# Entry
Amino acid sequence: MFYLIVTILAFCSIAYELLLGQILSAFLGNTVLRYSVTIGLYMLSMGIGAFVVRDRMLARPVLALQIVEVILSVIGGFSLVFLIWVDSTGAPGALFSLIAHSLIIIIGILSGMEIPLLIGVRNLHVPESDIKVLGLDYIGACAGALVFAFVLYPITGLTLAAFLIAGLNALTGVCLITERRAVPTADRSVFKSLIGTQTALGILLVICAWQAPAINEFIITVYLKA
Amino acid sequence: MPEKRHAVHYLFTVVLAACSILYELVIAHKISLLASNTVIWYSVTVGLFLLGLGLGAFLSERLEKRFSAWKALFVVEVGLTALGALAVVLLNMAHMVFAQLYHAGGAGFGPEILFGTAFSLALAIGTLTGIELPLLISVGRKLNIRHATSVLLGLDYTGSLIGALAFPLILLPAFEPLGIGFGVAIINGLCALAIAWFAIDRRLIPIAFSASLVAVLLISTVQIGGIHQYFLKRYFYYIELGESLSTTFSLEDHLPPVFHASSPYQKINIVPDELPSVRHLFRPALSRKLSLPENHDFPGDQILTLDGRFQLNFSTEEIYHEYFAHVPIIATRVVPQKVLVLGAGDGLLIRELLKHPQIQIRHVDLDATLLDLAKNNPTFRRANRDALRDPRVDTRQGDGYYFIRNDTAKYDAIYIDFPAAYDYNLARLYSREFFQMVRARLNDRGFAVFDSTGTARLTPPDRNGNQAILPTNNWPVYYHTLLAAGFANADIHPFVTTLSFNHSELVDLIKTTDLKDHVINMNAEKLKRTVSDEHRSRLLETLIDQYAQATIPAEISRNQHGFIMLGAPGLAVSKEYVDLDLELYVLTPERYPLAFSYEYPFELKIRPDLVNSIMRPRFPTDPIWHAKLPY
# Structure
C-alpha cells in the first residue's frame, strides 16, 4: 500500500506540471519553450522542496505529508480554473506567465517535500528504504508523463484531467490512514481532521470531475468573453 | 586549498546536470522533428529520463561497492559524452533505415527502429545521469563538503534548470540539434578528461582515451556543415537514394545541396527538385505559369518544406494560393479592403491578395526567420514578387492566436494560412476558441478563410466527376469545431482545389513530350507483338488515350487541397464565376465551379467529442506512431 501511495503521488505531481505547461503553451504559444521551462523549473523546485523539509516536519512526517497533499490537491485541481480567471481579467501576458510559473514552482516545491517526508514515514518501520522510495517516485513520474501525453490531454481533456488527478491525489492522501499507528497519540485529533478534510476534498473533486463538461463550457465562455 | 576544490566540484555538478538535460532535450527535439507531435515526444523523453534517473540511483549503489567513485564517474562521463554526441547521428540513421524500408515497399520495422532508438537513448542517458549524481555526492563527502547531499542535489537541479532554459532560448534558435549534441558532448568530454587528469592519478589510458574522444568531437564540429548536409540529403532525397541500404548510406552522391535555415519555431528547407520525373511533365497542364515567356527561365522546380514536411512546389504553388486568395472574393463578389493575414510567412498568399489594388493588409507571422527569407532570399522573392516589401502590407512578428485574442479591430477578410494541425501546439490554431475569436473580428459582410488540411481527402473523380469522402477526411472535426465556435451551417463553405483537365490537350501534351516514351516503355511488350507499323501507331494512339484517361483523375486528386470559408451571418456566396480581370495561371472559369462541386455532409447537432479545443485537442488525426517523410 505504502509503495503504491509513493508512486501515485509522483504520478500526480508531474501530471499537474505538464498540465500547467500545456496551458501556458496553449495561451502563449511556443510549446518547446514552455515544456523545457516547465521541466527545468519542476526539477529545480523539487530540489528546493527537499531542502525546505525541516527536522520539525520529519518528527511528524505523516501530518506534514497530509498537509502537503491537501495543498497540492487544492492547487493542482483548481489551478486551471484559476489561471483562466486570471487571463479573463485582462491581465497582461507577463503577469499571467508569472502566476503560472509560480504555480509550477509551488507544486514542484511541495512535490519535492513529499520524498523526504515519505522516506521519513517509511523509516518509522523499515530503516534504509530511501532508494526504493526514490526509485518508485521516478517510476510514478515516468508514468505521469506518459499518461498525460497519451491519455489525459488528448482523451480526457485538461479540465477533467485536472479534477481527476487532484481527486486521485486527495484520495491517495486519505490512504495515509494506513499509517495511523505511526501518528503519536497527541496528534490523533489533528490527524483525523486532516483525513476528514482530504475525504471532503476528494468528494468535491470527484463531483467536479463528474460535472467537468459543464465546468469546461463555463470556463471557455469566461475565457472568450474577456 | 579545499575551498577551491569545493568550488570546482560545485561547478562540475552544475555543468554535468546541464549536459544531461540538454542531451535529453536534443533527443526530444530531434524525434519531434522526425516524427512530429512535440508534446508527446517531449513527455515521453522526460518520462524515460526520470525512469532512467531512478534506475541509475539503484545501480549506483552497487557500483560504488566495487569501484572508486572517481573511476566510476570517469566511465559514466565517457559514456555520456559518446551517447550524447551520437544521439542525433543515430536518430538520423534510424530514420534513414525507416525511409529505405518504406521506399522498398514493406513498412517493416521502420518506425519501431526509429522510436526504439530514441527511447533507448533517452533511457540510457537518464540511467547514466542517475548513476552520476550519487557518485558526485560521495565524492563531495570525501572532499568534506558540508551537507554534501543537499548542496550537490540543489546544484544538480540548478544545472538542470540552466540547461532547460538555455535549450529553447539560446541554443535552439542558433544551432542545429546535431551541433548542440556535439557542443554539449565536448564540454562533457572535457569534464571526463579533467577527471582523468586530476583525479585518477594521471594514468595514461584514461587520459588518452578521453582526450582522443574530445579531439574526434572537435574535428566533427569543424566539419559539422558537411555532416548536416549529408543527413539533410538523406532525409529529402530518400526516393532518389532509396535503391538499397548501401545507396541510402553511401557517402558520395551527385544530388544538389539542400538549403536550410532554422528559427526558434521551425526548420526551413528548400529542396531542389530538378530530376526529370513523369509528374513534372504534367506541369504545363496544371498551370500556365511555365509556358509564359517571362517565366521560361524560372529556376528548376524547388520544394519548400517546414520542419521537414512538404509545403509547396515553387513552380505550381498557384494551384493552392490562387484558389485560397480569390475563390472567396469571387464567391462573395466583394473585394475586401481591410484584410488580416495570419501565418503565410512565405508571402505567396499575399502576392495573390495584392493583385487587388484596393486591399490593405495587416500581416502577422510567428517566424521572423521565415519573414526575413521571404523578403531577402532570391527564390522566395522571385516567387512572391516582393510581396512583403509592398507598402500596403504591414507585417508584424507574433503568434497569430495571441494576436487575435488581444486584437480589437474588425476586418473585411481574415486569411488564415498556418501549417497543418499535425501537432498539439498547431491544433490550437484550429480550435473552437480560435475560430470564435476570428468570428468576433469579422465585419458585417466579412469573411474568413482557412487552409483545412485533410478536407480534400476524396476519392479520385469517377466518370461523371463524382467524388466520395475518404474515412481519413478531417471534415467532421473542422465542421463540429466551427459549429461549437458559433458558425451556422449556412455560413460554412468548404471548397477544394479540384482541377479540370482538357482531355485532348493532355493527349497532345503526352504526344509532344517525353511522356510518350514513358507510355511506350510501359507497354513495350504489347507494342512488340503488333505486326505492322500502321497497327503499332494506332495502338499507340489508343494507349496514349487510355493513359490520359487513367492519369487525369489521379492528377486531379493529387493536386486537391481543402479550404473552408466562413462568412459573417447572412453573407451570400455565389458558385458562379465572375471575371475580376486578374492575371491568373491556374484558376479558370471552368475550374472555379468545381471548387464547390463536392457536397460535404452537414448536420444540425454539435458532436462534442469531435470539437477541437485548446482544452482537448482533436488534432492530429494521424496515428501517433508515425514517422515523418518529406513527401
The longest strand of chain B covers residues 442-451. Chain B touches chain A through 58 residues (CB under 8 Å). The CA atoms of residues 152 and 271 of chain B lie 48 Å apart. DSSP finds 24 helices and eleven strands in chain B.
